[in-house]
Amino acid sequence: MSAHPGFPAGRHVVVRAGAYSIRAGRRTLAVSGALLVAAMGLALLGLCLGGSWTAPGDVLAALAGQGDSVVVVREWRLPRVLAALVFGAALGLAGAVFQSLTRNPLGSPDVVGLDAGAYTGALFAITVLGGGPAYLAAGSIAGGLLAAAAVYALSLGSGLGGLRLVVVGIAVNAMLTALNSWIVLRAEMEVAQAATGWSAGSLNGLDWHEVGLPFAVIAALTLLLAALAPAMHQTALGDDHALASGVRLSRLRLLLVLAGVGCTATVTAVAGPIVFIALAAPQIGRLLTRAPGVALAPAALSGAVLLLASDLAAQLLLAPVALPVGVVTTVIGGCYLAALLVRGRRRHGG
User: Fold this and answer.
1) Residue 24: band (very low, low, confident or very high) from pLDDT cuts 50, 70, 90
2) Any stretches that span the bilayer, and where are they (predicted)?
C-alpha cells in the first residue's frame, strides 16, 4: 500500500499484477463496487422487462441456455441491456476525458460540440454515402474529430483548458446543430424521417449484428484510456507537476482526445446522439468518491447505471410504446444543470 501524491497516506490501495500496478482510493473502490452491483441489478431488471414480464429465475436459466425464454432473453433483450451498459460507460469515459482536459465540469462532448459534429458526419454518411454501418462509423468519427479540431483551433491561446474552450465549444455546437437541421430539411422525406428519429438517441431494436463491432472498438479504447490514466491523473495536479514527472503533455492530450472522440462517435454511429450522460456521469462519480479529480472507473460505471436506468424508464413511461432513451436523458440533463445552478448560487451566497 502506498499513497498517491497530494493525498493522505493510508487511504489508497495498490493492486499489482506482474509488472503492472493500479493505485486506487479505498472510497473509490467501495463506490465502484456499489455502482457495479447497481448496474448488475438494473441489468437483471432489464432482462426481465419486455412485452411480458419474465421471472428472474427464468432469466438466469435462459442465460444458461435453459427454459422457454432463451430466444427472448438472449437474442432480443440481452443486446439492448449490454448496449446500455457499454455505451453508458463509453460516454462516461468520454466525459471524464474532456472534463479532465478542460478542467471544467461543462467540458463534455455534448456541450462542446463533439456530439453534434459526430451527428453531422453521420448525417453526411446517411444522405450522401447511403448510410451503411461502415459509412456511419467513419462519418461519425470524422465529424467528431473535425469538430474537436475546430474547437481547439478557435480556442488557441487558452490551450485545452479554461472557460474559453467551453464557450467556443458551445458556439460550435450551436452552429453544427443549425447545420444538422438544414441537412435534414434538405434531405428526401424518407431519409429525413429516419435521421430525425435516429437523432433522438435510441437503443430500440438493437441486435447482436449491430453491437458486436462497437463493443470491440469501445473495449480497445477503454484499454487505451486505462493505460493513459496514471499520466492523466498527473496532469490533474498541474502541467508543471506532470512535466516534472516525465509526462509528454502534447502526445498525452492528442491520445486522450482521439480516445474521447472515438468513444462518443462510436456510440453516436449506432444509437444516435445520446446527450447529457457524458456531462453528468463524471461529476456524479466525483461526488460519490469525493475525489479531487475526475476518475475514469467511477465515471464509466456512473454512465452505465445512468443510461441503463434511463432506458428502463424509456420503456416503462408509455408502455407498451418504448420512448427513445435520449428523451429521458435530456430530462435528466436539464435537472442536472438546474441543480448545478442552484448549487452554484448557494455556494456564492446568491
Assistant:
1) low
2) 29-53, 81-99, 111-129, 135-154, 166-185, 211-233, 254-281, 316-342
